[in-house]
Every structure is written in structure tokens, then in C-alpha cells.
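Give me the 3D structure for DUF6314 domain-containing protein.
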Amino acid sequence: MNQLANPAAITFASLVGKWSIDRQIFDKLSNLTAKVYGVAVISKQSQNELLYNEEIQVKWENSLETTSGSKLYKYVLSDSSKLEQYNSIYDREGNQGFEKMYDLNFYCDEASNILFANGEFQCGPDLYKAEYEFDSLKKFQLIYEVKGKSKNFVTKTIFRKSHFVVE
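Predicted structure for DUF6314 domain-containing protein (167 residues):
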């Protein structure tokens, strides 16, 4: 992946599909961990827009119960060189929309020839920092660090592309 002419566009094209999710959550305030498993489907909505839909199961180490959850994000390739991430939000009337989180900044580690991308955003008193590591076009890792008044945790997610095609 060394010297990629347009890493945002290449990454954008490779994200479409079904991905298995293997995530760990480390809550530094409570010293608890959770294991998260699930699936993310990333589908092409238009020439420059992807929709990310995640369905997960969460199991905290101190609980016998498993909870489920879902997340919805949007990725937008702007001017073929910048990849933006948006979070799903709802207004007071319950209408869904999207709010920009960050631009992903791509860079390649010359020694390992691995592509990375990072971004960060402020949500109220909380700071979210994301670091993507693309081992290949079929596997990547996302690490989120979240810090705020009542939050201090890290999530580490491994995404592996499945063999199913999603249009």
C-alpha cells in the first residue's frame, strides 16, 4: 500500500460488503471489560456515499446478560480525496439525520507499508479519537479512545470481510 495515489478513494471502494466484528471495550473508570461480536454491512448509497449498519451483541465481564445494539454511520467521499464520517442522530420529532464526526486523515507507515487513517471529534464534554489500521482490503482495525467528565474508555475492533457480496 506504499505511495497510494488516492488512499481515501481506494478505502471507500473496498469498504462495501459484509464485515464480522470482534470488539473489546476497556472501561478505565470501572475497570471492566466487555466482548462484542456482530456484523456490519456497508452498502453503497450513491457514487460517493456509503451507509454503515452495525448489529452487535455485548457481554460485560461482570454480567450474565448479553445485550444487543446497533449503530448507523455514513461515509462520504468528497472530491475523491477526502473520506468523511457521519453519525446518525435524531431530532426532537424523531426524524433521523446525520451529523459530521470527522474527516479521516490517511497516511502510510513507510517501514511496515501499512495504511492508517485517523480523526477526532468533540461531542459535548467528550473527545473521541479514532485510529484505523488497514492490514489489507479485507481486514482492518479501529481503535476509539473516548475521554470526558464521566467517560474514559477504549474500544478495539477487528473487522474481517466476509465472502458475501452486498450491493
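The helical segments are 7-15. Let me know if you want a second pass.
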